[in-house]
């Protein structure tokens, strides 16, 4: 296997969720894996097949966007205009818009059309150093349409140099054909959608939306229990718009993550800390919905909850095409430090996807996914607003070239 010596760089390893910076560092990769990371003075290039000069770059783990809904039909810019006029997200949803609007457009779209539109959005994330992305279904809400979305997600991972984790979010909202029959729809999700799509190996994890405009905690619990019977890890959209106790429920079920969390309580934070459930914060949705209640970051810190940050890329509440912008917003809107924000899209995002054993930090034995940034300090990753920050990405031990994809 090819051994490469990467030198003339500084490394933020993100081990334990801290920079653990090594200045004047070197990295040795062997095939797809990291063999060694440390101070350059401690290891020479001897025994390696190639030597790459990183020209003083700062190297971080490849970025991980652990919560996206990036496969969808149409867009909701019209609703954006309505919300700016004062109509609420819940009102739009009650009038048959919101998630249901996107469901109509996603059901109508061909698999190829969904693939093409999602591919462009995913490339925008990848150009900023994203090497792993989670993609949820949840705009199909029937077996065939959920299957179509998850197939697109899998195809994206095969066609592009990026690692894709799929999540089945069939319990995103009650589709109009089940209006007033949420429990029956939950039966359909549990008895048909989940087992069939799991059998087709389209599902890496299962999620649900616990909210007054979606599913109650007891309905959500049925979905998550069914997922666990299928041996699938679970996660939950919880406490986004109201406090229903979904975060505690997720933690008690050993969920990988609970996501959003603006309305979470101290009890929720304690339960998540005990369970090791990651808190995934989504500043794009908070910003787009012009929310004023921030997720309680101090409570999360106090209870030792690992915090991740993600784009929530979706057409309704977070049309966010930049994970780096989310780092800035996690700092300015939620009060994270740039170091916490970076941990949120590396180590803790890997944990939220159940991938910490192989991804998320730069340590011997892990997958050689990393980004070499032309910056002077790691905090710059959360500092620059938009634009292009010069960087080059290594995936599986090789430079990633996006010009031909
Ligand atoms: O994460 N909260 C639920 N789901 C998405 C929004 C989906 C939509 O509005 O289309 C979210 O914000
Ligand atoms: Fe979401």
Automatic annotation (TrEMBL):
Its EC number is 3.5.2.7. It holds the Pfam family Amidohydro_1. N-formimidoyl-L-glutamate binds at residues 139, 314, 316. It is an enzyme of class 3 (hydrolase). It comes from Pandoraea cepalis. The keyword Hydrolase applies. Residues 58-397 form the Amidohydrolase-related domain. The lineage of its organism: Bacteria, Pseudomonadati, Pseudomonadota, Betaproteobacteria, Burkholderiales. GO terms for biological process: L-histidine catabolic process to glutamate and formamide; L-histidine catabolic process to glutamate and formate. The gene is hutI. It is found in: Cytoplasm. Belongs to the metallo-dependent hydrolases superfamily. HutI family. Keywords: Cytoplasm, Histidine metabolism, Hydrolase, Iron, Metal-binding, Zinc. The keyword Zinc applies. GO terms for molecular function: imidazolonepropionase activity; iron ion binding; zinc ion binding. It catalyses: 4-imidazolone-5-propanoate + H2O = N-formimidoyl-L-glutamate. NCBIfam families: hutI. Its main location: cytoplasm. This is Imidazolonepropionase. Fe(3+) binds at residues 67, 69, 237, 312.
């Amino acid at each position: 296997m090819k051994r490469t010596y990467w030198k003339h760089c500084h490394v933020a390893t993100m081990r334990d969720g801290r920079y653990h910076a090594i200045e004047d560092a070197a990295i040795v990769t062997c095939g797809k894996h990291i063999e060694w990371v440390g101070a350059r003075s401690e290891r020479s290039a001897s025994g390696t097949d190639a030597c790459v000069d990183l020209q003083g770059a700062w190297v971080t783990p490849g970025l991980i966007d652990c919560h996206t809904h990036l496969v969808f039909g149409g867009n909701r810019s019209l609703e954006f205009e309505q919300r700016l006029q004062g109509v609420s997200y819940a009102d739009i949803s009650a009038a048959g818009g919101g998630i249901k609007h996107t469901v109509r457009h996603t059901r109508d779209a061909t698999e190829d059309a969904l693939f093409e539109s999602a591919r462009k959005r995913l490339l925008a994330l990848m150009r900023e150093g994203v090497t792993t992305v989670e993609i949820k279904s949840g705009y199909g809400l029937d077996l065939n349409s959920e299957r179509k979305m998850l197939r697109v997600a899998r195809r994206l991972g095969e066609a592009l140099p990026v690692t894709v984790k799929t999540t089945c979010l069939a319990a995103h909202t009650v589709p109009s054909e089940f209006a007033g029959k949420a429990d029956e729809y939950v039966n359909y999700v549990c008895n048909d959608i989940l087992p069939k799509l799991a059998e087709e190996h389209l599902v890496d994890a299962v999620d649900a939306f616990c909210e007054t405009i979606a599913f109650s905690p007891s309905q959500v619990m049925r979905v998550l229990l069914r997922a666990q019977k299928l041996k699938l890890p679970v996660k939950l959209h919880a406490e986004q718009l109201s406090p229903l106790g979904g975060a505690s429920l997720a933690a008690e079920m050993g969920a990988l993550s609970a996501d959003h969390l603006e309305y979470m309580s101290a009890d929720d934070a304690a339960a998540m800390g005990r369970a090791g459930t990651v808190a995934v914060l989504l500043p794009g949705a908070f910003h787009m919905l012009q929310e004023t209640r921030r997720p309680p970051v101090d409570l999360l810190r106090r209870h030792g909850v690992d915090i991740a940050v993600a784009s929530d890329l979706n057409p309704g509440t977070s049309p966010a095409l930049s994970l780096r912008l989310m780092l800035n917003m996690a700092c300015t809107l939620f009060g994270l430090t740039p170091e916490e924000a970076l941990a949120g899209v590396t180590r803790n995002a890997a944990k939220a996807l159940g991938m910490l054993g192989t991804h998320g930090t730069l340590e011997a034995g892990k997958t050689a996914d990393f980004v070499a940034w032309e910056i002077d300090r790691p905090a710059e990753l959360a500092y620059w607003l938009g634009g292009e920050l010069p960087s080059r990405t290594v995936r599986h031990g090789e430079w990633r070239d996006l010009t031909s994809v």
